[in-house]
Amino acid sequence: MSIYKKFFWCTALLGLTACAQDTFITYTGNMPSNEKIEQLKMGMTQSQVQELLGSPSSIVTLDRDTWIYMSSEIEQIAFMRPEEIDRKLLVIKFNQNGTITDIEHLDQQKGKQIQISQQETNAPEQEQGFFRKYFGGVGQITPFGGGNNQNNP
After folding, report:
1. How much is the pLDDT for 94?
2. Do the domain assignments include residue 24?
3. Considering the chain, what is the average pLDDT of its residues?
4. Given 41, 99, 108, 129, which is the most exposed site by the fewest CB atoms within 10 A?
């Protein structure tokens, strides 16, 4: 075998080994252990739940009576786009007195059933004309303290 063929095969072999699959798995969220989740009982207060499970991943903004504990497993292969391979949600609902009324476990399959609304809510203060949008802040910011400050003599 000639030296060129040996060099070619060595280079090809090194090139193939360089293409090894680099897989990165990331875990995100704040999902309590199953042992702690099993200790939940109907009628527990929000403070008891927080003491047992810790702070929730999210609190629903509109009613503040729904706590969500979430964890997600994300896989990324080399430079490719990350892909969620597993998701778990624990949804705890409280009544007006702050005690548990419902505990629900959701996984990635149930989460895919949620439909996202395509409707938009228009906010009138965001609809600005061209000049107000691009020149509305001119003169309002004085970066070097040259404004009318009453504390300056």
Report:
1. 93
2. yes
3. 78
4. 129
142 domain residue, yes or no: no
Q: Domain residues for 105?
A: 8-110
**Taking a C-beta distance cutoff of 8 angstroms, is the pair 110, 86 a contact?**
no
**What confidence tier does 128 reach under pLDDT thresholds 50, 70, 90?**
low
Q: What is the rounded CA–CA span in Å between residue 32 and residue 68?
A: 11
In a domain, 63, yes or no: yes
Q: List, as one string, the DSSP characters of 31-94.
A: PPPHHHHHT--TT-BHHHHHHHH-S-SEE-TTTS-EEEEEEEEEEEETTSPPEEEEEEEEEEEE
Does a structural domain hold residue 117? no
- Domain total for the chain? 1
For residues 147 and 143, give the distance between their C-alpha atoms in angstroms, rounded to a whole number: 9
- The amino acid that residue 96 corresponds to is Q
